[in-house]
Amino acid sequence: DQQVKQNSPSLSVQEGRISILNCDYTNSMFDYFLWYKKYPAEGPTFLISISSIKDKNEDGRFTVFLNKSAKHLSLHIVPSQPGDSAVYFCAASEYAGGSQGNLIFGKGTKLSVKP
Amino acid sequence: DTGVSQDPRHKITKRGQNVTFRCDPISEHNRLYWYRQTLGQGPEFLTYFQNEAQLEKSRLLSDRFSAERPKGSFSTLEIQRTEQGDSAMYLCASSYRSNEKLFFGSGTQLSVL
After folding, report:
1. Fewer CB within 10 A of the terminal residue: chain A, N end or C end?
2. Segment A95-106, tens digit of pLDDT
3. Which sign, positive or negative, has the C-alpha torsion B101, A89, A55, A98?
4. CB A27, CB A92: distance < 8 Å
């Protein structure tokens, strides 16, 4: 039973346009959400996070939106660059429940940004 | 500070052999995590240490797996009697506090023949 779902295995975007990656979750107790980027043969690299008390967090070209009622979050990358091409993982945790950092990851979305 | 370091990067072994991986976390981080990632999946939690204490284990961690962090610094993950299903990327991560992001190493890619 997948608690974090990324339903799009891949996404292709033109350089300079917006990339929107989506993530759905089922556990209403999740209170902390993160996005990681992963290049081949490397470990995941942290991109941006959001607490459940917020609905938006922005860091440069990256913005994460959280819709708690829909149990949905999205990552927006504007403008997209070829170097953004990677696999993006959505992750969630239940810190208030004492999970101690046990992150539940989605299966990832492979983003390709074409020049 | 060079980040989380894992060794080896790649390990090829025959079924039935034992393997051991090492992880050196970021020096000031007292929390250390092991994850496993198979093809087409996201990382899956295996176990977690706070200092030298192993506080949480996943049901994925069968009795053939053992992890240690003897002095609260580096950690080892041992797999005994490896099976082909153990083939995966084994990722180590560390953090300073429980509500902070995890920093991952580059992983150890295990292939069991």
Report:
1. N
2. 655 556 688 999
3. negative
4. yes
Would you say the C-alpha torsion A77, A85, A106, A94 has a positive or negative sign?
A: negative
B21–chain A Cβ distance below 8 A for any pair: no
In 3D space, the residue among A87, A35, A21 whose CA is nearest the CA of residue B40 turns out to be A87
Q: B83 touching A, CB under 8 A? A: no
Q: In the predicted model, what is the mean pLDDT of chain B?
A: 92
Q: Kindly report, residue by residue over A49-90, the tens digit of the pLDDT.
A: 999 999 999 999 999 999 999 999 999 999 999 999 999 999
Q: Which residues of A touch B45 (CB under 8 A)?
A: 102-104
Please answer whether residues A88 and A36 qualify as being in contact, where contact means their C-beta atoms are separated by less than 8 angstroms.
yes
Q: Cβ–Cβ of B109/A42 closer than 8 Å?
A: no
Q: How many residues does chain A have?
A: 115
Q: Does A53 touch chain B (CB under 8 A)?
A: no
SS3 A53: coil
